[in-house]
Amino acid sequence: MLKSLAALLMLLPAAALGAESAPVRSDRAVAVLMADQAAVSPGGEVSIGLRLRLAPGWHTYWRNAGDAGAPPEVTLTLPEGATVGPIAWPAPERIEYGPLVNFGYHDEVLLPMRVRLPASLPVGGSLPVEARATWLVCEQVCIPEEGAFRLDIPVAAEAQPDPATAPLFAAAAEAVPRPSPWQAQLALGSGGGSLVLEGPGLSRETVRSAVFLPAREGVLDNVAPQRMALAPGRLDLALTPVGGASVPDSLDGVLLVTDGGGRRVAYEVAAPVMPFVATAMPLWQAALFALLGGLILNLMPCVFPVLAMKAMALARMSGEARGKVRAHALSYVAGVLVAFAALGGLMLGLRAGGAAAGWGFQFTAPGFVAAMAWLMLGVGLNLAGVFEAGRTVGAGAGIAARGGHLGSFATGGLAVLVATPCTAPFMAAALGAALAMDAPSAMAVFLALGLGLAAPYGVLAVFPGLARRLPRPGPWMERLRQFLAFPMFAAAIWLVWVLAQQGGPDAVLAVLAGGLLIAFGAWALGQAQRAGGSRLALAAAALGVIGALALLPRIAATPAEAAAPGPGAEAWSAERVAALQAEGRMVFVNATAAWCITCQVNERVALRAEAVRAAFAARGIAYLKADWTAGDPAITALLRAHGRDGVPLYLVYPAGGGAPDVLPQLLTEGIVLRAVGG
After folding, report:
1. What are the transmembrane regions (predicted)?
2. CATH says 179-275 is which class?
3. What is the pLDDT of residue 400?
């Protein structure tokens, strides 16, 4: 009889006048409804919260209780016109209990809600707030508890904070996870999962440990360890999905980070969920793949003109002393390695600073594309004989020995710059793995890629006698040199076309004007060289180059224009892929860029083939194009979710849902048809 009476009394509203209700007590917890203001004002806001003080050893739960338990629930009854927001959940603890992991709170917790009041509240009256709440408390056993509460808060012309409760609400607000300052990428699939965070402030000094607590139950295995990999500016956590569970389109949660001093900070993390592709690769394998990729890169169209120039330079050394051949070959190799080290260091530095930087990332900047177009034009004019590089103006001394080695070094650097729009087999996997490693390991992979690119000429450093088998110098070399100017001019034209995709007519006008100034400067320099060092010609050459460089800020500031995806294609988005799969359609995604030569070749050879188009139409396959020409962050996330750090990337999503198949980077008509079942 007494127990029934006690239970009945607990369900009656525990009333109080002011900022704190009468408590609901048990041997396990004391529950109170409270407000942060002693008096409220019409049309203002007030925080109302349920405070639970728990007996030693007992705990209650977060909004996702974890493997067992249930979160507290609070229902407020307010005057007409008042509205209430959701609970602002403080960051929870990770509570291990036998084979289970739960998320919740020990000792005490305040669960605040923000209430907006109507302007019609009469001054001098009171604000009645009634609440019914349920909560689960656990130690060795779990016991559900409940209570009814009431507050009557005075209404005044101006709100007045309550000196006893306001500090408790301030502390609760401090415990709410802060917005994450980092870019987040989430990937889940049958093979595993990962959470990747990138941005400044991620290092071994600032992160000692980290764990991700999902806000949605039944998605992640909470018991499975979350292995952490940390590099400057990047944090990787290995996640384990629940077997057989459906993968959500997006997921949010709390990242608990413990810094080097042992202080815990909670961050709110939310991101779309991409399909998971396992990309873990040991350093030796990544370096081997990079070496092979760099070697194959010599066969890609990007570097043909530069390699032909180097071959012509080596042909001049036919019959020269072995030491001279070796020195020039080593200078070229050094140029390649230094350029790759600089490019890798720049990529790692930008990513540590939170920028989205991948292979070929510099071509997403219109200013860089314009500068490269002018460089190709300048090299072409040099090859055509308009001016001589390395020649001492007025002295007619030709190219000095030191200048020759500097030229070999510069040629190696130029080969790296012009190679970045191309991607060779093995490269994507190697670079994707490298940028998930620590900085020294990543740099080792970049240098292995450079060794592969430099290998054909590095052989001459080891076996300089091979240079004697090259054709003897003669008049043919001058004709070849002039002929090689035209591939350079073609490269400049292609880069202007790329700039047209990025910045439109204004950018094209500026780069063409800059090209005219560069050509004028080259002509004036040639005149100065032939006339014995005319100061007027030299000044004109300098003005031409300075005038072109002055146009770069204008080109760099040109607003990006969204390129049309082309006939038969739609613009890519993760939401569109999901919608098309839900409609029962297969989806082909082409992640590409206007500056990516490999991408353009694949489109012409495979994706625009009549048989491929017919197969797409017959089977109702949706063709989505993810254009990375200007460096879209969403497409960057798509690339990284599939272990890639640059374009191209080709994905075939099955109808009805599911993870995609990843196609090779070099396509043929047959590869595409087999992938789509055509």
Report:
1. 283-308, 329-348, 368-387, 408-436, 442-463, 483-501, 507-525, 537-556
2. mainly beta
3. 28
